[in-house]
Amino acid sequence: MVAALVPPPQFEAATFDSYRPDPEYPSQLSTKETLIAFSSPSGPAPKARLFHRAKKQAELKPGVYLDGGFGVGKTHLLAAVYHATPARRKYFGSFIEYTALVGALGYQKTVELFRGSQLLCIDEFELDDPGDTMVMTRMLGELVSGGTKLAATSNTPPNALGEGRFAAQDFMREIQAMSDRFQTIRIDGTDYRQRAVDGVAPALTADAYERELADAAGAQAVSDDVFGELIAHLARVHPSRYLRLITDVGLIGLRDVTQLDDQSAALRFVAFVDRAYDAQLPIRATGHSLSDVFSAEMLAGGYRKKYLRAVSRLIALTTS
After folding, report:
1. Which of 30, 94, 124, 233 would you call most buried, defined as having the most Cβ atoms within 10 angstroms of its Cβ?
2. In this predicted structure, what is the pLDDT of residue 44?
């Protein structure tokens, strides 16, 4: 699990040079420049001259937090930070991977594992329950006090994490403590995936589905599962292990997709979609359109941004 804490294959070569800011949104370029400075070793403080005081430098926080909608390049920039930071010990993982590590090793062993590391990158930062709030706040606090720098992405500003999902007011002290460790950087823009697709995940006929899978199977391994059976299986596997389910797969086939009405099942499917998107695996499906897999009630709730990000990724994967 620790060896896997590196950028996913899609971003294993991501750099600041390969990030293409949208000129219509100046915050993308300014964010890139800020992160280049964050990734560079700190230079010496300016020296004072006779009759002149040295210019006071702004106090730098130990972390940067990229806040923005889905598809504006946050993960690309986070991976660029990872690659550009000259550090012997650095880690890159999704929020769920770090919490899974705590569950597997225990809190203290996880802290000791990361203690002394120069950089911790956390993608898809979410605080969906009070337990995760307490664990991540404590762990990041201990690591920052030891000199570890933090970089994170999310669709939610750090002072709004947990909002609409649990009694956030009961944990405001912990959430605020976490927020204080980050410089929040807002990235504006439109979802780059939507620039090349029409916004609908196609649902294939049974015959078209069989042809697509048969064609793909000639060159690679493909999966072929009934949607409901996949959802049931995901409930029996920890989300940190979803990547293993698709490690040797070149295309994912889903039969008889239905709209999800159970929030826990929907969130597990979101985590699965994230891993499929990281691996850039095409998806072919029959039944209900995957762009409409989450109910209107879900899209109006506290996980709205997470579901919309998953829909965006599903559209990209079903049209690739």
Report:
1. 94
2. 39
Q: Express each pLDDT in 128-178 by its tens digit.
A: 556 676 788 789 888 988 999 999 887 654 555 444 443 344 434 555 666
State the pTM of this model: 0.68
3-class secondary structure per residue, the chain:
CCCCCCCCHHHCCCCCCCCCCCCCCHHHHHHHHHHHHHHCCCCCCCCCECCECCCCCCCCCCEEEEEECCCCCHHHHHHHHHHHCCCCCEEEEEHHHHHHHHHHHCHHHHHHHHCCCCEEEEECCCCCCHHHHHHHHHHHHHHHHCCCEEEEEECCCHHHCCCCCCCHHHHHHHHHHHHCCEEEEEECCCCHHHHCCCCCCCCECHHHHHHHHHHHHCCCCEEEEEHHHHHHHHCCCCHHHHHHHCCCCCEEEEEEECCECCHHHHHHHHHHHHHHHHCCCCEEEEECCHHHCECHHHHCCCCHHHHHHHHHHHHHHHCC
Q: Which of 62-76, 185-199, 270-284 has the lowest average pLDDT? A: 185-199
137 touches 178 (CB < 8 A): yes
| Euclidean distance between CA atoms 6 and 2, whole angstroms | 9
